[in-house]
Amino acid sequence: MSFASPPTTLARPTGLRLLASRTFVAGAVLTGLVLLTAVMSLVWTPYDITRLVVADRMQPPSFAHWLGTDHLGRDILSMIMLGARTSIAVALVAVGIGVGIGVPLGAYAAARGGFVDEALMRFNDLVFAFPSLVSAIMITAIFGPGAVNAIIAIGIFNIPVFARVARAGALSIWPREFILAARAAGKSDIRITAEHILPNIAGLLLVQASIQFALGILAEAGLSYVGLGAQPPMPSWGRMLYDAQTVMLVAPWLAVFPGTAIMATVLGLNMMGDGIADALDPRARGRR
Amino acid sequence: MMTFVFKRVLFGLTTLVLASAVVFAMLQVVPGDPARLMLGMNATEDQVQVLREQMGLNQPLVLQYLDWAGGLLRLDFGRSYTYSVEVSELVGERLAVSLPLALISLGLSTLVAIPLGIYAASRRGKTADAVSMGAAQIGMAMPNFWFALLLIYVFAVWLRLVPAGGFPGWSAGVWPALKALILPALALALPQAAILARVTRSAMVEVLGQDYIRTARAKGMTARSVLWRHALRNALIPVLTILGMQFAFLLAGTIIVENVFYLPGLGRLVFQAISQRDLVVVQSVVMLLVAAVILVNLLVDLSYALVDPRLRGNR
């Protein structure tokens, strides 16, 4: 149905605008570096962190250990590389849960309206009444600490976020003329949603995904800092900060690197999100 | 106006009831019998049964829920398994730390962020704008507990201006107590201030682009009075929304930051309760925070009507 073909929001002009956006490029480079580190840790880290060399403990940064060693003699650089994997995995799967369940819910509510829509929105209000961190703590407290429960706890709160964005985005597309044309062509609501609505709200969802990804990294770090996230010996940035706090008087640098890693990742993701949002809505440029 | 208030209050109450049901249900799925937990490993089956009867655990779930929810209304949260005192008493003690902490950091972040956001908006596209929004980006990306660690290192370990942690209690005097709260409050305030500054700036930029602002300028008003008298008032709604959300975040956020500073607030209480499986306490604190979120959101919604007369009609 060529006459009904929608203006795809992420088409070339937007792509070009993205590359022209310094915010986006800087964010993408930062995020790319973190991803690269995480991937690299799958095949290589400078040291094996399961081998504890107590004689080498709490060394300041040196040629042998670029970022120093912790209280058990483990190489900090290797720990940070492996920690990147934990953080990214937890936050990414949590975003996946949010997108996978929230977007269909939101799209369905927008397509059908009525009771389903009302019920979904009330459910959203209910979930938003729970401060996410408190609830994540409660969930991990009930079901036990660990990376998987942290993913579930963070993921549950991503569902209403994506449902809300998908619904609002879809509601703004449904009254458009090309949708009317698609309807006239006899397409079902599901097909219209898949072929026309979703591609048009993909940009919005991408912006939200980068925000939730960043929040997920922060939440995972917070949970593992208080001992409810990834459990040792699985390295995680939050846990490293907890360990660093106990030896902060003798080895303050230990608290610097994991925190910097968290900050760089979140900063990269947020900047990417800002860049995409600007490219999608050039008029809003500079408003953020 | 009255129907708006009535509807909004009714809606808040419904959410509260539903939320309490969720919290109650969550605690039902916890493995383990609370009566057995209280009595320890050596209790006989008979002793456990007697206690179960006393605690009302043999009643149908619906009755147990009504009993618990009714207690909440009377501020009777039940008794802590481990402390053997009323939970309300425990929570009250801890709130005396967490609430001032949240309020101080809300105050700090508002005082810094709103002027910063307005300033950045008025200098849109200039260096000052880029610098302040860059700083806001970094503030948003810093985990507050990490910022807290850095603050401890600089101000407590290195400069020795304030204690690194702990809380002397309000009975030790206002000044020593405030000194113990200042670093945690700063740590909590940073990410909140960063978000608030961004929201304030974008709301102001949006408003400053409106026709009536051009009109105000055209009729010869000074830039300053356009900014403060016309723009700010109209930019307040998104700012208020975020402020309301942030208060809830701050109360919840104290949980982790209190652990960094070993402050005896709600957060420490929750963690001690979790490690001791004292779930009545966990349940009560979560319920309290949820009620606070709902109440604050209600107040924010009602305040929209004060700020924006158009909203009084059809919402």
Automatic annotation (TrEMBL), chain A:
Name of the molecule in the record: ABC transporter permease
Taxonomic source organism: Oryzicola mucosus
Coiled coil: none
Pfam families registered for this protein in UniProt: BPD_transp_1
Transmembrane segments: 24-44, 88-111, 123-142, 201-226, 246-269
Top-rank lineage group of the source organism: Bacteria
Example of a GO cellular component annotation carried by this entry: plasma membrane
Residue ranges annotated for the ABC transmembrane type-1 domain, each copy included: 84-273
Lipid bilayer topology: Multi-pass membrane protein
Keyword hit for Transmembrane helix: yes
Predominant location category: membrane
Cellular location(s): Cell membrane
Family designation: Belongs to the binding-protein-dependent transport system permease family.
TrEMBL record, chain B:
UniProt entry keywords in alphabetical sequence: Cell membrane, Membrane, Transmembrane, Transmembrane helix, Transport
Main location: membrane
Segments traversing the membrane: 97-120, 141-161, 181-199, 235-261, 281-307
Gene3D superfamilies: MetI-like
Localization per record: Cell membrane
Domain ABC transmembrane type-1: 95-300
Database matches in InterPro entries: BPD_transp_1_N, MetI-like, MetI-like_sf
Topological relation to the membrane, as annotated: Multi-pass membrane protein
GO cellular component: plasma membrane
GO molecular function: dipeptide transmembrane transporter activity
PROSITE patterns in the record: ABC_TM1
Family: Belongs to the binding-protein-dependent transport system permease family.
Protein name (record): ABC transporter permease
Taxonomic path: Bacteria, Pseudomonadati, Pseudomonadota, Alphaproteobacteria, Hyphomicrobiales
